[in-house]
Write a structure and sequence with these properties.
By secondary structure, the chain is an alpha/beta fold. The chain is built from 14 helices and 16 strands. Strands 1-2-16-15-14-3-11-13-12 form a nine-stranded mixed beta sheet, with helices on both faces. A seven-stranded antiparallel beta sheet has the order 5-4-10-9-8-7-6, sandwiched between helices. A hairpin with a 5-residue loop joins strand 4 and strand 5. The chain is elongated. The N terminus is likely disordered.
Length: about 375
């Protein structure tokens, strides 16, 4: 709201900026760092696949309206229990909507009469959320629901190496289709004092939830336009590497070199500056690693434009030559740290702004030459 009041809207583009010169600077960008969800994709998720540990699969779109088989109820129920009810998050909404259509006539855990006792949030060292529930007026043990990155869920479930390898085959198969994948597990506890870490619970692995997020129309054409204009587009995402590679391929990005956050953590700044010259997809990255990527690109002499939406994106948005915040899903902190606010969160609008920036620069050159 503050940006809309104090800024300047650029022509017919859905963009606000406090400094008109920022558009000109954007026109000189040589590298455009973009996130995946909501920028390259529509951020309109749906549950595409439920997969049990034994390999059984249910795909809602292929079911022709058939009811969810009973053996998948527990997987979906605990996926709901490990999430935030009535959340605006597209992943949570997709899982809730499937539960609403498939579990309304069943006896399931996410109904009334359950109280959330404790929530363990997402942490850098454990990419999963854990919720502990207690049935009201009951002396039964508390129910524990876990949902998050598959590798984190496998770790909490203490799967053996062969079991983990078998499940990773399923993860890679789903990720190759461009799905965002969540692992789900359940546990029980009767302890009065809950542990400080979710790792101290005993979990049973329930399966995987795959969510589809369609690519925005026109993204591939916009990427081609960037490439023809001499701008390299790189994707920086927290998603699993195979998922990120699949979406990048559909968007027309070069997927030959993929760098993960785990690999970045092992590199010093010099090694990272060398690797970012060829890497196009950065997956499973943490916010602080985004800042390192931006600084490494700048160290190589690139003019860097960076998109972001979260509080933790603010340092990298501020460090980039041009920070671009998301207007729909961006936080106030991200918008304040950015030079440009993208009102429709659409990658195509960034490309249009680059085109406008180059036009302004060309006009300045012509005017200067004339004078």
């Amino acid at each position: 709201r503050d940006v809309a009041v104090t800024g300047v809207q650029t022509c017919a583009l859905p963009i606000f900026t406090r400094r008109a010169a920022a558009i000109e600077t954007l026109g000189s960008a040589t590298v455009l760092c973009t996130d995946k969800t909501g920028t390259l994709t529509e951020n309109r998720m749906s549950v595409a696949e439920l997969r049990r540990p034994d390999g059984a699969v249910f795909r809602p779109q292929d079911s022709n309206g058939a009811a969810l088989p009973g053996e998948f109820h527990t997987l979906l129920e605990y996926g709901i229990l490990a999430g935030t009810r009535h959340s605006a998050d597209p992943m949570e909404k997709a899982i809730d909507e499937l539960g609403h259509t498939q579990l309304t006539a069943t006896e399931h855990l996410h109904g009334a009469g359950w109280t959330l006792v404790r929530a363990y949030g997402l942490r850098p060292d454990l990419l999963a959320v854990t919720h502990v529930w207690q049935a009201s007026g009951s002396n039964q043990p508390m129910v524990v629901a876990l949902k998050g990155a598959p590798e984190a869920v496998f770790e909490c479930c203490r799967l053996s190496a062969p079991e983990t390898a078998a499940q990773m085959l399923a993860v890679n198969s789903m990720a190759a289709e461009g799905l965002r994948i969540l692992g789900v597990a359940r546990g029980v506890t009767a302890a009065a004092d809950l542990p400080e870490s979710p790792r101290d619970f005993r979990f049973e692995f329930l399966g995987l939830i795959g969510l589809a997020d369609p690519l925005r129309p026109g993204v591939a054409a916009a990427v081609r336009e960037c490439r023809s204009a001499g701008i390299r587009v790189v994707m920086i995402t927290g998603d699993y590497a195979t998922t990120a590679t699949a979406i990048a391929g559909r968007a027309g990005l070069d997927t030959g070199a993929v760098l993960t956050g785990e690999a970045i953590a092992q590199m010093d700044d010099t090694a990272l500056a060398e690797r970012v010259q060829t890497a196009t997809v950065f997956a499973r990255t943490m916010p602080e690693q985004k800042l390192r990527i931006v600084n490494a690109l700048k160290a190589n002499g690139e003019v860097v434009a960076m998109t972001g939406d979260g509080v933790n994106d603010a340092p990298s948005l501020k460090s980039a030559h041009i920070g671009i915040a998301m207007g729909k899903r961006g936080t106030d902190v991200a918008r304040e740290a950015s030079a440009i606010v993208l009102l429709d969160d659409d990658f195509g609008s960034i490309v249009s702004a680059v085109r406008l920036g180059r036009r302004i620069y060309d006009n300045i050159r012509k005017a200067t030459g004339f004078i």
